[in-house]
Amino acid sequence: MSFVQVIEFDTTHEQDIQRVMDDWRDSTENDRTVTHTTLTRDHTRPNHYVAIVEFPSYEEAMRNSSMPETDALARRMRDLCDGPPRFMDLDVIRDEDL
What we know:
There is one protein chain. The protein is α+β, with helices and mostly antiparallel strands and about 100 residues long. The protein has one domain: Alpha-Beta Plaits (2-Layer Sandwich), CATH 3.30.70.100. About 35% of the residues lie in helices and about 30% in strands. The chain is built from 3 helices and 4 strands, in the order βαββααβ. The chain has helices spanning about 15-25, 60-65, 70-80; strands at about 5-10, 35-40, 50-55, 85-90. Strand 2 (about 35-40) and strand 3 form a beta hairpin. The model has no long low-confidence stretch (mean pLDDT about 95).
C-alpha cells in the first residue's frame, strides 16, 4: 500500500524553500525512499503551501524520515516557515488515473 505525507506551511521565503528542497534531493539521490513530490501554493493565500510527498509504504517513509539529510531538511524548513508546519500521514486506499 502506498503512503503519502502532506505538509502544510506558511512562508514568505519560497525561493529559499525551493533551494532547501533541491539540496535535499541532490544529497539523497541514492538513498531516499521518496517516489514523487509535488509542491503547491494556495491560489488565494499566496504564502500558504502544501507539499505532497509519496512513498512506496509507511515503513519506507519512516526509513526516509530517519535519514540525517531529512532531519537537516526539516530543521531548515522550520527556520524558513512562519509558524510550525502541519503534517498529515495518509495511507492510500484508492489511486486511479482518470
